[in-house]
Amino acid sequence: MQDALAQWEYTTALPADENGLTNPYHGVSCEEYVGTVLPKLISFEHPVGMPEWFVPETYYYLWDGDRLVGEFRIRHYLTEALRNGAGHIGYSIRKDMRGKGYGTAGLKLTLEIARGIVPEDEIYLRVNKDNIASQKVMLKNGARTAGEDEKHYFMRIPK
């Protein structure tokens, strides 16, 4: 329950959309998070009765001691929309912990797990062009820029 409360605090404090990471749970009550949202997030890993377009997704949380500092999501494989969009991994770091290496360390750990899950030859990520910090995190983890659109760079990391 202590982890669930920390996850609720972290998740509901994230903006609804920040740097391209969407958060439909911004501002939900603790009761709703523990009773509805958390079971839903857990079910995303082994989904049952989901729409055909749905991709299994696993949430991981980065802790420093007893403080939750980041969230990392792995989408298990790509649909066409993900291939040309968000990719395999999305993540966030608590605002007051940014710039301290947590993004780089957390992405490194997430990539180790993703390499055992993702069937594609590369791990796909997308980053906003104005999010220089996240670009650096990805580059430190072996990313290359594979393309771009008006607002994003499409990054690839070898498996």
List keywords for this structure.
three-stranded antiparallel beta sheet, 28% strand, single chain, alpha+beta, 159 residues, globular, Aminopeptidase
Helicity, as a percent range: 25-40%
What is the structural class? alpha+beta
- Count structural domains: 1
Provide the CATH topology.
Answer: Aminopeptidase
Runs in which pLDDT lies below 50 for 5 or more consecutive residues are none
**Arithmetic mean pLDDT:** 94
N- and C-termini, Cα separation: 35 Å
Count of DSSP E strands? Answer: 8
Please identify which CATH superfamily we are dealing with.
Gcn5-related N-acetyltransferase (GNAT)
Categorize the overall geometry: globular
Describe this protein's structure:
- By secondary structure, the chain is an alpha+beta fold.
- 35% of the residues lie in helices and 28% in strands.
- It has one domain (2-158): Aminopeptidase, CATH 3.40.630.30.
- The protein has 5 helices and 8 strands.
- Helix 1 (2-13) crosses helix 2.
- The protein is globular.
- The termini are far apart.
